[in-house]
UniProtKB/TrEMBL annotation:
Assembly and interaction partners: Homodimer.
GO molecular function: heptaprenylglyceryl phosphate synthase activity; magnesium ion binding
Residues reported to bind Mg(2+): 15, 41
Keywords carried by this UniProt record: Lipid biosynthesis, Lipid metabolism, Magnesium, Metal-binding, Phospholipid biosynthesis, Phospholipid metabolism, Transferase
Main EC class the enzyme belongs to: transferase
HAMAP family: GGGP_HepGP_synthase
Pfam families membership: PcrB
Pathway annotation: Membrane lipid metabolism; glycerophospholipid metabolism
Cofactor: Mg(2+)
Protein name: Heptaprenylglyceryl phosphate synthase
Catalytic activity: sn-glycerol 1-phosphate + all-trans-heptaprenyl diphosphate = 3-heptaprenyl-sn-glycero-1-phosphate + diphosphate
Cleavable signal peptide: none
Catalytic activity, EC: 2.5.1.n9
Length: 228
């Protein structure tokens, strides 16, 4: 499954803390997207995650959990994406929560299913930037440097450029992409239609589409066409 992740070009991110009716979930799961990622920065619980996973499992597509709270880790996902927010001002969001979770779950951890994401949070107004105290005042060179910490110093499999809630600077995304040797570049933030999806897909390996699913489902479904 870890190998499959590399081929994913489009992913829908569903938030367990938000409502979705069956018809909308059906449309998302049959949209042609490569996978569903389940996660959010706040309000994610064991209960709302189990509920969403069990509904998604009626469909055949891969489903991964992006872990933001160790209390909400649910068995049964295909992969577990583990963020490390590299530009956080608080080390607990880089290695602290991860160390505590490993200490707690110990021998139960299916290591072959864990994928570490080197997160670079770039929208100062996002929930995740506030939560993690991210230093979002980075120019392109500073952003590349974080990406290279992930790719070259830490050998992380994924660099995630996170503009959650706003469409990012595509020149910065392109520049980061060019500098990566091994890591997969995931881009997320503000993709709201086919046009923005195409722009982001052109400069990254994988695009993640989140909020628009809940705001305008028809536009969200169009974004899949950007990678087909
Ligand atoms: C049997 C079994 C399955 C055992 C468990 C094994 C397992 C999977 C162990 C995991 C061990 C481990 C290392 C866990 C990590 C624990 C943890 C809490 C790490 C911290 C992660 C972190 C840095 C969180 C900060 C927030 C963050 C980066 C969240 C990612 C998702 C995100 C950015 C969503 C966007 O947020 P959203 O709510 O949509 O925001 P908007 O409001 O802007 O839309
Ligand atoms: O919700 P949006 O802005 O689409 O961002 C997607 C994803 O990167 C959020 O973690
Ligand atoms: Mg969101």
């Amino acid at each position: 499954m870890k190998e499959m992740l590399k081929s994913w070009r489009h992913v829908f991110k569903l938030d367990p803390d938000r409502e979705m009716d069956e018809q909308s979930l059906n449309a998302v799961c049959l949209s042609g997207t490569d996978a569903i990622m389940v996660g959010g920065s706040t309000g994610v619980t064991y209960e709302n995650t189990v509920d969403l996973l069990s509904r998604i499992r009626r469909y055949e597509l891969p489903c991964v959990q992006e872990v933001s709270d160790m209390e909400a880790i649910v068995p049964g996902f295909d992969l577990y994406m583990i963020p490390m927010v590299l530009n956080s001002s608080d080390p607990s969001w880089i290695v602290g929560h991860q160390q505590q979770a490993i200490d707690r779950y110990g021998y139960m951890i299916p290591w072959e299913l864990l994928v570490t994401e080197g997160y670079i949070v770039l929208n100062p107004d996002s929930a995740v930037a506030h939560l993690t105290g991210a230093n979002t005042l980075l120019d392109t060179s500073g952003t590349i440097a974080y990406a290279q910490v992930a790719d070259k110093l830490m050998s992380l499999p994924v660099v995630y450029l996170e503009y959650s809630g706003t469409f990012g600077d595509m020149e910065t995304v392109r520049a980061v992409h060019h500098k990566l040797t091994s890591a997969q570049l995931i881009y997320g933030g503000g993709i709201k239609d086919l046009h923005t999806a195409k722009e982001a897909a052109a400069v990254s390996d994988t695009i993640v589409v989140g909020n628009i699913i809940y705001e305008d489902l028809d536009q969200a479904l169009q974004t899949v066409l950007a990678v087909k």
